[in-house]
Specification:
This protein is of the alpha+beta class and about 375 residues long. The protein is built from 10 helices and 20 strands.
């Protein structure tokens, strides 16, 4: 449906997007995810026609539209601020597009009514058709904006952080509503967000962007379980990331890494690291087990000291420090059945080797860096 063919976008000397090269399939829910300034919105604006690529081409349904103005592209955009007409009813807001295109004259009398009624039913607003925007909740206004953007049957719908103005609980509800609407209509959705949960919940595939570059494209499971870079591992969800040295390969499935003061087995990533090369070991906090006694069996294990505990509802976030002063984070659920822990307690941290991943070494972002990155977004 959409091809981004080696696209670069510069603003004077600043490179906003560098050599982006990927395709988006028909009927796909595709998200571009990354921190503020990573190039995701610029890429969306180039697809929409609001920006022109400096190099490369944008193709829509096989046709080069790099220099085609927005109103001549068969795509529509929903922004964070919905810009509904306040003096019009919900029904008239949705009907504005097909009326402007004189759809009744082209397709036959009653076509506008059929389309509007159909879309209002899809977004579950039929009973609100005669209300004004000010009489609707934020989530209802967002669905009106969706219906208005979809009523002309675009090839693709572009969404630029459309849930950003909603409160947290409503955002969660609307994530599932957006996915339902997309599945029912079968239209390609291209979604821009800095919220990892939104991208993981709704997307068929995700492009993770950083500093104008596409770091990885994959399904939510692939992005989460097999990140390609340290940046992706740290940005998607939470991750323990420890720098060390890959000392060799134990067998076809595992390599050995000297990290946390121990030699540990781990899954190799997709990038080959030579023996003796610098490497970063990733383990998700929910994969970490905490025991008072040293565990037995086929697990990677290191001694650690508890430094802090934070209650987070379903889990307790346990902060620890290894013997080499490296920080460790574990999410401890009730199934671990641990005694009451306190800062200063000595424990053993372990995980299954297949739950870890070895990545090419890079500057591991600190917890403070990641929190600042998300705050900026």
């Amino acid at each position: 449906m959409i091809e981004i063919d080696h696209v670069t976008k510069r603003f004077a000397d600043y490179v906003a997007v560098a050599e982006a090269d990927f395709s988006i399939g028909s009927g796909e829910f595709f998200s571009m995810l990354g921190p503020s300034g990573c190039g995701k919105t610029t890429t969306l604006r180039m697809i929409a026609g609001f920006e022109t690529p400096t190099e490369g081409a944008i193709r829509l349904e096989g046709h080069d539209v790099s220099h085609v103005p927005p109103h001549k592209r068969n795509v529509n955009t929903v922004f964070q601020h919905y810009a509904l007409f306040p003096h019009m009813t919900v029904w008239d807001n949705v009907a504005y597009g097909p009326r402007s295109l004189r759809i009744d004259k082209k397709k036959g009398k009653g076509e506008v009514k059929r389309r509007v009624d159909e879309l209002l039913e899809v977004v579950r607003l039929t009973e609100f058709a005669q209300r004004k925007p000010e009489q609707l909740s934020g989530g209802q206004q967002q669905r009106v904006a969706l219906a208005r953007a979809l009523v002309n049957y675009p090839s693709a719908l572009l969404l630029d952080e459309p849930l950003g103005a909603l409160d947290l609980k409503l955002r969660h509800v609307m994530q599932f509503e957006l996915k339902r609407i997309q599945r029912e209509l079968g239209i390609t959705f291209v979604y821009v967000t800095h919220d990892q949960e939104e991208a993981l919940t709704m997307s068929d595939r995700i492009a993770v962007m950083n500093a104008g570059n596409v770091e990885q494209i994959g399904t939510p499971t692939e992005i989460y379980d097999r990140p390609a870079t340290v940046f992706v591992a740290g940005f998607i969800g939470q991750a323990n990331l420890w720098n060390g040295t890959q000392t060799g390969r134990t067998n076809r499935d595992f390599v050995e890494v000297d990290v946390l003061g121990s030699k540990l087995r781990a899954r190799p990533g997709d990038t080959t690291i030579e023996s003796g090369g610098r490497a970063t070991l990733m383990v998700r906090p929910e994969r970490v087990r905490i025991t008072m006694e040293q565990p037995t069996g086929d697990v990677a294990t290191v001694p650690a000291t508890v430094t802090d505990l934070t209650f987070q509802g379903p889990v307790v976030r346990l902060s620890l420090v290894a013997a080499d002063e490296s920080p460790i984070v574990a999410h401890v659920g009730p199934e671990q059945d641990l005694p009451m822990l306190r800062p200063g307690d000595k424990v053993h941290v372990s995980w299954a080797p297949e739950s870890s991943l070895v990545l090419p070494a890079a500057g591991v972002p600190s917890t403070e860096d990641l929190e600042e990155m998300l705050d900026d977004s």
